[in-house]
Design goal:
The chain is an alpha/beta fold. Helix content is 40%, strand content 21%. Strand 6, helix 5 and strand 7 form a beta-alpha-beta unit. Bound molecules: iron/sulfur cluster.
């Protein structure tokens, strides 16, 4: 993103649009609009039908347990004391569930090659090192894997042990994603997540010493008591540790969906102008420190694969956020995990209980979506908006022809409104560019214009409060 100043007019437009509730577009259509079903028994074969012999794919594994509730959290998780006998029984049932799910899907994946595993949660390090060795043994016994199989794992700095780190290194984990959120004491208390800087610094040092050099920090703005000064303090500490990638998410405030957010008093949350100032501060400070803006809320050091892909125009976006050009077809295992291959996307039952039950009755229907040709066109445009901050009409025309022309005729009056608001500009080469910095900060607004599943005018009015998070 360029460092052009943010004019008064830009500020006004930003404030007007950033309060709108709109989808995040990690998928198109957004999951609430998926309209198909498929059985758990058919999941493997339907997905693998899109793969060629020898084709590489990626696995997402969802570990649904945490030791303590963070009040902002919107993830699928269950809170338990990891040392309790009940927790260990549940983890054993979870591992058995993975064994069962692998047995169901693996026959369809024998022709393909597992190239990458990403483990998220919940808290992956809720499982102890021995249990991780069991999980790896299950996977490699059932699925043909690439010799240089890569792993990346999300970890909680408060509960990870040296034994975990050594085991992850032994499994071949190269990238760790650390839930950091914020370094200020007052903010940490308010979100019920205490993790001093020294704890995170120590983890970074140990991970790097074991060869896990690729570190990602997840941070959040929009938390209670965050101010310009507190974010400056957090950023100073983050920059001292210099992770390769940073995802600085805007807190999605949806207390009707995520009940623990009711612990926050609305007056303690930065909103409107205060939230905009925090976002602008984060963008400026990270870029001053040498990070490249990858799109929406992602940043990376120039030598990181994500930044290289962004410069090369090969960036892609999937359920886990921005990825490099090696975005692979995705198989999801575990409760709530999403899979996406070819034109098919499918989500496992959300809770651990429902997932385990479904594994006993494999005719259980799962929420799914088969992309239509029109979905594919709109998805291609939305992907370009997020990954290139531009819509290359000429390039898309080659693939979608008349359908693209018809769609642009339909949305042109709305695009002209966004042009007048300073979010997009038209160039001579049949390319529509998101302006810098305003349009790039409001990518979700421009994308929503192409979303056929939203009510008309949603890009100007947003969705009903509680149906989606606000844009900025
Ligand atoms: S933020 Fe992470 S560690 Fe905290 S409750 Fe949610 S999933 Fe668990």
């Amino acid at each position: 993103m360029s460092r052009r100043p943010f004019s008064l007019a830009h500020r006004e437009s930003y404030l007007r649009f950033s309060s709108l509730a709109l989808p995040r577009y990690t998928s198109y259509p957004a999951i609430p609009h998926w309209k198909d079903q498929l059985t758990l028994a058919a999941k493997g074969s339907e997905l693998a039908a899109a793969l060629e012999v020898g084709q590489a794919y990626s696995l997402y594994l969802h570990v649904p347990y945490c030791a303590k509730l963070c009040f902002y959290c919107g993830c699928q998780k269950e809170i338990m004391n990891p040392k309790s006998a009940a927790a260990q029984q549940k983890v054993e049932a979870f591992i058995q569930g993975l064994r069962d799910e692998l047995a169901l899907v693996a026959p369809a994946f024998q022709k393909a090659v597992l190239r990458h595993i990403h483990v998220g949660g919940g808290t992956p390090n809720f499982l102890n090192p021995e249990q991780w060795l069991q999980v790896k043994a299950l996977i490699v016994a059932q699925l043909p894997t690439a010799p240089d199989l890569e792993w990346s794992v999300e970890v909680d700095p408060r509960t990870i042990t040296e034994a975990h780190l050594e085991t992850f290194a032994q499994l071949g984990v190269k990238r760790l994603s650390l839930g950091v959120q914020d370094f200020e004491d007052k903010v940490q208390k308010a979100i019920n997540r205490i993790q001093p800087f020294s704890m995170v610094a120590d983890l970074c040092q140990k991970a790097r010493a074991l060869g896990m050099n690729a570190l990602n920090f997840d941070l959040i703005y929009g938390l209670p008591f965050q101010t310009r000064e507190s974010i400056e303090g957090t950023l100073e500490k983050v920059l001292a540790l210099r992770p390769d990638r940073i995802a600085y998410y805007r807190l999605a405030i949806l207390p009707d969906l995520f009940a623990a957010q009711k612990n926050f008093a609305p007056e303690d949350l930065p909103q409107g102008k205060a939230s905009m100032e925090l976002n602008l501060l984060i963008q400026r400070r990270l870029q001053d420190a040498g990070y490249e803006s990858i799109g929406l809320d992602h940043f990376a050091l120039p030598e990181d694969a994500l930044a290289i892909a962004a410069r090369a125009g090969t960036l892609q976006r999937n359920f886990q956020g921005m990825t490099t050009g090696r975005d692979l077809p995705l198989l999801g295992l575990g409760p709530s995990a999403i899979s996406s291959m070819g034109a098919v996307s499918v989500q496992n039952p959300k809770t651990t209980e429902a997932w385990l039950e479904a594994l006993q009755q494999s005719e259980t229907q799962l929420k799914a979506h088969h992309l239509t040709r029109e979905d594919r066109l709109r998805k291609a445009i939305i992907d370009q908006i997020f990954c290139r901050s531009a819509i290359d009409v000429k390039e898309l025309e080659q693939e979608f022809g008349e359908a693209l022309i018809a769609l642009f005729q339909e949305v042109l009056p709305d695009l002209r409104i966004l042009e007048a608001e300073g979010l997009v500009s038209f160039d001579r080469h049949k390319c529509i560019r998101l302006t810098e910095p305003l349009g790039r900060l409001l990518q979700r607004v421009v994308a929503s214009l192409f979303d056929a599943y939203l009510p008309r005018g949603a890009y100007l009015n947003g969705l009903e409060v509680g149906r989606a998070s606000s844009v900025g």
